[in-house]
Amino acid sequence: MTQYILRRLLLMIPVAFLVSAIVFVLLRITPGDPVLVYAGEERDPVALEALRHEYGLDQPLPLQYVVWVEHAIRGDLGRSLRTRQPVTQAILERLPKTLELGVAALIISVGVALVVGTLAALRRNSPLDLIATGFTIAGVSLPNFYLGIILILVFSLAFRVLPPGGYADFVTDPVDNLKRLILPAITLATASLAINLRQVRSSLLDVLSQDYLRTARAKGLGERAVVLRHAMKNSLIPVVTIFGLQIGALLDGAIITETIYFWPGVGRLAVDSIGGRDYPVVQAIVLMSALAFMVSTLAVDILYVWLDPRISYGRRTG
Predict the structure, then answer these.
(1) Percent of the chain surpassing pLDDT 70
(2) Which of 7, 4, 57, 8 is nearest to 277 (CA)?
(3) Which 3 state secondary structure label does DSSP give 79?
(4) Which of 133, 160, 250, 304 is the most exposed place for a label (fewest CB within 10 A)?
(5) Half-sphere exposure of 185 toward its Cβ, with a 13 Å CA cutoff?
(6) pLDDT tens digits, 220-254
(7) How far apart are CA 62 and CA 184, in angstroms?
(8) Right CATH for 88-267+293-307 from 1.20.1250.20, 1.10.3720.10, 3.40.50.2000, 2.30.30.140
(9) Cα distances (Å, whole numbers) of residue 66 to 59, 72, 161
(10) What is the spatial distance between Cα 82 and Cα 271, in angstroms, rounded to a whole number?
(11) Each residue of 138-158: pLDDT tens digit?
């Protein structure tokens, strides 16, 4: 198992290089000059050329990439072209806010999916099952931006029970923080909740028809023990795969959600940086998102072994 984890960690290195190279090239071929965005009303050719030289944008693209990689290996992701703030510092300032939103959305998505999906599978074709099935269709169909706008119109403008957006520090005002967190968390969690709920229900239905559960019931085990100790653990293997991918995708979903609700996280920083052609910030955020995917999939593979001892990543002998 240790060798497998080390191999996966080593494989992350070329994948990270490939992702960074693709993003680097795509940003450079996108129309727009970051120097003109930064300079504002300044159109003096000499001043513009001095800015390009300061940022290294007058160098050939391969050389720019090599210089960026050399600095990134040392932990220096450069400085923002817009604010002159170190990229690492800019991301770290906003990362806790994105993690707060992502963790809240994940708790809603996973918690509700496990409870409602299990009850829907145990009470197949009941009103609860029909409602859960209908929700999965609606949840997958509604885009994030549309759902966010609807929630703001209903709960903020019509009923005026929740703020329409913004952020409040939890330490300073925990109540206001939680109020402002509810709508963005629901918006970010809805699509993944629908997928998780459907997966939990279908996986549990498949397991409930297996012979070993009939044997467990025949031995006198109660229904709760049969479901929790046997059925749930085996049905979670495909569900964990979906959960792992969603953890890595939290940052991608947060880009839209944070923009709608003016949530000052990494996703909002990405949108502002793309509009301002802030190459270093966008490169760092995309690289961080790719690493989040790789780490989450590795964690899922490790969790497989705990859920099913028959799974082994060691070398087979004989």
Answers:
(1) 93
(2) 57
(3) strand
(4) 160
(5) 21
(6) 777 777 777 777 777 777 777 777 777 767 766 78
(7) 40
(8) 1.10.3720.10
(9) 11, 10, 52
(10) 13
(11) 998 888 889 999 999 999 999
Structure tokens given for 7: 């191999």
Closest CA to 55 of 75, 30, 28, 31: 28
* Ranges of each domain in the chain: 88-267+293-307
C-alpha distance from residue 14 to each of 9, 21, 249, 290 (Å): 10, 10, 21, 12
Question: Burial of 203 by CB count in 10 Å (0-12 exposed, 13-18 middle, 19+ buried)?
Answer: buried
How would you class 240 by CB atoms within 10 Å of its CB: exposed for 0-12, middle for 13-18, buried for 19 or more? middle
> In a 10 Å sphere around its CB, with 0-12 CB exposed, 13-18 middle and 19+ buried, how is residue 119 labelled?
middle
Closest by CA to 255, choosing from 275, 241, 280, 279, is: 275
User: Where do we find the tokens 């899922």?
Assistant: 300
Phi, psi of 79, rounded to the nearest 5 degrees: -120, 150
Q: Is residue 303 within 8 Å of 35, Cβ to Cβ? A: no
Report residue 36 as tokens. Answer: 């003109």
pLDDT band at 318 (very low <50, low <70, confident <90, very high): very low
Tokens (6 digits) for 284: 């760092």
Task: Count CA within 13 A, CB hemisphere, residue 9.
Answer: 8
